[in-house]
Amino acid sequence: MGQFHLSLAILLVYLISPALGKSGVHIISGVPSALRVQCKSKDDDIGTHTLSNGEEFSWRFKPNIFRTTLFYCYFFWEEKQKSFAVYDARLSRIFLELHKTSTVEDHPKKHKFDHLVLGPAAGEGLHDRLQCQGIKALNKTHFSASAGTSNFRENVAFVTVFTTYNTSIDRPINVESRDMVTVGNISYNKVERSMAVLDVFINFIQMMMPQSNIIILTDPASKLPVHRNRVTVYPIQGEYSRDKLMLQRIRSYIAFLETRLEEHFQWQRQISHYIFTDSDVAVVDDLGQIFNNYLNFHLVLTFRNNKDQPLNSGFIAVRGTPDGIRRGKVFLQEVLKVYSSKYMKASRMLGDQLALAWVVKSNPSFDAKRFTKPLAFLEEIGGASVLFLPCAIYNWTPPEGAGQFHGMPLDVKVVHFKGSRKRLMLESWNFLNSSSSDISDMLCLILKSGRTKYDF
C-alpha cells in the first residue's frame, strides 16, 4: 500500500489567549493508521510528531503583528480511505475538507475545489483594510462617488486579448466529459467557461463604467459569439498559440495602438484612453479617475513588492492623446524587443513581466526600492512618463501573492483572479446578483475564498 501525504498551508488569525498574545494550533488525528505531522512557519519549526487515531497534539506561538502567521503542515499516513478537515481556532467553521476513496498514490494530484471554500479574512484589525464578519462587510470600501454614473467626459476603453483553443464554441455539450464544470445552475465545457469569464469581465465593467467601450483583440480565426452593447471584437493577425500568447499579447497591443494613431485624425475631437487588462479581472470602481487625477503620464504600470517580478502585465493604461499613444507604443516595442531577445524560454508565462521589469530597471536613475511601498509615483522611462500604481489597489489578487500586502484595501479598484480562481470570479458575480449584498460584501467573499485553488 502506498503512502498518502497532504501538504497544507494554514493561515492563523485568531488569538486564543489575548492576555498572553499567543495563538495556538490543535491537531486531532482522525485516520486509523499512524499520522505523521510536520509543521513549521517562517520563525518556528515544530518538528515531526506521530499520532495514533484519536490522539491530540497542539502548540502555541506568538503571531506576527498582522495576526496572519502562516504555517505549512505536512501530513503522512497509509490508508485507502481518508477523511480530513481543518477548522478555525473556535471550531466554528471548516476551512478545508478533503475526502478521498480512490487508490492511494505516491504523489497524488493536488485537490482543487469545485465549490467555494471560505477561510480567514486577512487584514483583521487593520483600520485601512476591509473587515468582514462571515461574508458581511463591517466597513465599506471607498468607491468613487461617480462609479456607475461617471461625469468623466473623456472616453475610457478597455482592451483585452482573448482567444479559444481546440474546441468549437458551437460544439454540443458532452455531459459525460471530464472537462465539464458547474457554477450555480449552469454547466460549462472548457470553451464555455472561458466565454463565461469573458462575459463576467464585461459585466463588471458595464456595471461600474457603463459609458466605457470594450475591445476584444483576437485571432481572426476565432469566431467569438460576443454580441453586447459597446463591445467590439477586433481581429489582429498573429500567433495565438498557448506557448506564444503572452508574446502575441504585446504584439497585439502595439498593433492596436498603431491603428489608433493612424486613425487619430478621424476622432481627434474625442479623446479615448485605453486600459489594457487580462480578461480575468473585475473592475469594482470607476477607473476614469486615473486619467483625471494624474495628468502628466503617458503610460500606467502596476507594481508590487516582488523582487523578481515587481510589475504585473495584467493592467496597463495608455493616455489617449497622440503623444500618449505614440510613447506608449514605443515603450511596448522596447518591451517586445527585450522579451524576444532575453526571455523566450518564458514565452508561455511571465516573460512579458520579466521584460517589463528589465526595461524599467535598466533606467540608470530608477530606484527599485520604490516598489517596496504601495505609493503611486511617476518616472521617466525611455522617453515615456510612466505612472506606477500599486497592485494592492489597481491589480489586487485574492491570495495576496508574495506577501506584498495584507488584506484588502478599502479603496481597491481592480480584482485580478489569476490562476485557478476563475470559478471564484463567476461565483462572485452570481453572489452579487442573487442577493441583497453589495460590492463590499462580495469583496468579503473574495477575500475569504481567494486562498483556495479551484478547479478552474
Automatic annotation (TrEMBL):
Compartments where located: Secreted
Coiled coil region boundaries: none
The reply on keyword Metal-binding is no
- Assigned GO CC terms: extracellular region
Kindly list the biological process annotations in GO that this record carries.
rejection of self pollen
The record's section on Gene3D superfamilies has: Spore Coat Polysaccharide Biosynthesis Protein SpsA, Chain A
Q: Which family does it belong to?
A: Belongs to the plant self-incompatibility (S1) protein family.
Q: What is this protein called?
A: Uncharacterized protein
Source species? Rhododendron griersonianum
